[in-house]
Design brief:
The protein is 11% helix and 42% strand. The protein has 296 residues and is mainly β. Strands 1-3-4-5-6-7-8-9-10-11-12-13 form a 12-stranded antiparallel β-barrel. A hairpin with a 4-residue loop joins β3 (81-89) and β4. The longest helix is centred in the first third of the chain and has 23 residues, at 2-24.
């Protein structure tokens, strides 16, 4: 009889603990975005653990709302900017990626880590990720006059290997507000080891954007960035808009943008095209995801 009572008590305690654990189990919201990039900027999305992906980013040449639109065949006849990369998700919070861009023949390595995930009960209303990209320019530097100096000093100028490096760090904050609408903000800090005279090495900007689902696999995307410093001449902030089509294994984005570059370290340190004058670029992003089949 005593053994029976002990057994009943143990079962009661265990069932109570199990119930508490089930009540306290955190339910995370669906990711705010399908792609790990909104258009030009990053999102908080991390692909499935153990998966890897191939990404292709393409920007055709600049055209306008004039004869160049059809004369240059939507920019396809002009020089393009292209980046391709391979990435792997280490777990559900971390991925790494390596890529190459034809602009300045840049090789880059990036890492993104998800610090916090939004919950369905909105007790954690946002997802937060940190991001770092390091770029290495492999293109030959242009020649400089023999009397060139560093900045306002009299030190003779000479290229160094460190001058090829650039850094892009971000804190990305996103929220899935409903089944259709997701928004995000991201302060961006870009540092170039070598910049033109009179320009700061550090460029600070704030990007923002959103995604609105228009169908089962389609969404409308909008993105804007405000650059706070290194604004010389008629500097213009980049703005982009487009459509996204996503399946389990593919994400395809088609958009128009005023950003003539692909790497963010160059997007925010280079003036965008003049949208008021009808100047823009057409581009697309394509990502293919792969998973390793789980053993039974």
């Amino acid at each position: 009889r005593l053994k029976k009572r002990v057994f009943i008590l143990a079962c009661t305690i265990l069932s109570g603990i199990t119930g508490i654990c089930q009540q306290r189990e955190t339910e995370y919201a669906e990711p705010a975005f399908t792609h790990n990039q909104l258009i030009n900027g990053q999102t908080t999305r991390i692909q499935a653990p153990g998966s890897w992906f191939f990404k292709l980013q393409h920007r055709f040449g600049q055209v306008g709302i004039d004869s160049s639109l059809y004369g240059q065949f939507l920019g396809l006849d002009l020089p393009s900017v292209i980046r391709f990369s391979f990435g792997k998700s280490i777990n559900d919070r971390l991925y790494i990626e390596a890529g190459r861009t034809n602009h300045q023949r840049t090789i880059d390595l990036e890492v993104k880590y998800l610090l916090a995930r939004q919950t369905t009960d909105f007790k954690i209303p946002v997802s937060v990720a940190v991001y770092l990209n390091i770029g290495w320019r492999t293109e030959k530097f242009p020649a400089v006059p023999p009397d060139a100096v560093f900045g306002i000093t009299n030190t003779p100028f000479k290229y160094k290997p460190a001058h090829r490096l650039s850094y892009n760090s971000q804190v990305i904050i996103s929220s899935r507000l409903s089944d259709k609408l997701s928004l995000q903000l991201a302060p961006v800090f870009v540092y170039h080891n070598l910049v033109p005279a009179g320009q700061d090495n550090l460029t600070v900007s704030l990007t923002g954007g959103g995604r609105y689902k228009t169908g089962l696999i389609s969404s409308f995307l909008l993105e804007y960035a405000h650059v706070f410093n290194n604004r010389f001449g008629s500097f213009r902030n980049p703005i982009s808009a487009g459509m996204e089509f996503a399946t389990a294994g593919h994400v395809f984005q088609l958009f128009v943008s005023t950003a003539p570059r692909i790497n963010e370290s160059h997007i925010y340190s280079t003036s965008a095209t003049d949208l008021a004058d009808g100047k823009f670029l057409i581009g697309f992003n394509l990502q293919r995801n792969f998973w390793k089949k789980q053993k039974k």
